[in-house]
Amino acid sequence: MTIALLADDVLKEEWLEKEAPEEVEFIWVDSVSSLRMVEADAYFDLLYQPDPERIQQLKPLNGKPLFVNAVAWHGKVTGTDVIRLNAWPTLLKRPVVEVALTREDQLPAVQAVFDALQWRFQVVPDIVGMITPRVLATIVNEAYFTLGAGVSTKEAIDIAMKLGTNYPMGPFEWSSAIGLSHIGVLLKELSRTDDRYAPAPALVQALKC
Predict the structure, then answer these.
(1) Among 13, 35, 40, 199, which is most exposed with the fewest C-beta within 10 angstroms?
(2) Domains in the chain, please, with CATH?
(3) pLDDT tens by residue, 115-141
(4) How many CB atoms lie within 10 A of CB 22?
(5) What is the pLDDT of residues 45-91, one digit of tens each?
(6) Residue 198 near residue 190, CB atoms below 8 Å
(7) Are 49 and 78 in contact (CB under 8 A)?
(8) DSSP state string for 94-157
């Protein structure tokens, strides 16, 4: 199987760390137009943004499955021609990859690609934030509420969460590794329908810095 991917250096490194059988070939490209020009069995846009031009370009390529790293945008935004993938930095390293179908008939294609990669996947609902990113965004947001209230420092909150909950990273360390902008975009999208996800003032300020 040949897989074409559009990614930055961070996501490329995380992808390659997962390893795959030698018979799976990866072709790395640097633009959506380059992705469209490659002949492959499956396509991945790990740098997806929901702008109209990109959505228009990302139509099925040669009838092959097309995965997009669209954590914050469900199928009504991405369109039903793509398969959503949770490829936030650090989360791609997990042993199980979250996938959201935008059509029920996409499952066989997903199964074929992940069988070839010999990776495990979990189908999650086609909702904003999927599952893990929702949880992480909420944890990070609460940490920023705590910081803004002057209860503690970033360093102390990170240490408390790692020691108290056995998290691999504290919320501030994690948001830095993921990219605070990703967290901010997801919270903004979630808060459109649920005020509980409204970004903390301290988080909004951090995004402006």
Answers:
(1) 13
(2) 2-124 (3.40.50.720), 132-208 (1.10.1040.50)
(3) 999 999 999 999 999 999 999 999 999
(4) 6
(5) 999 999 888 888 877 667 899 999 999 999 999 988 899 999 999 99
(6) no
(7) no
(8) SSEEEEE-SSGGGHHHHHHHHHHHT-EEEEE-SSTTTTHHHHHHHHHHHHHHHHHTTS--HHHH
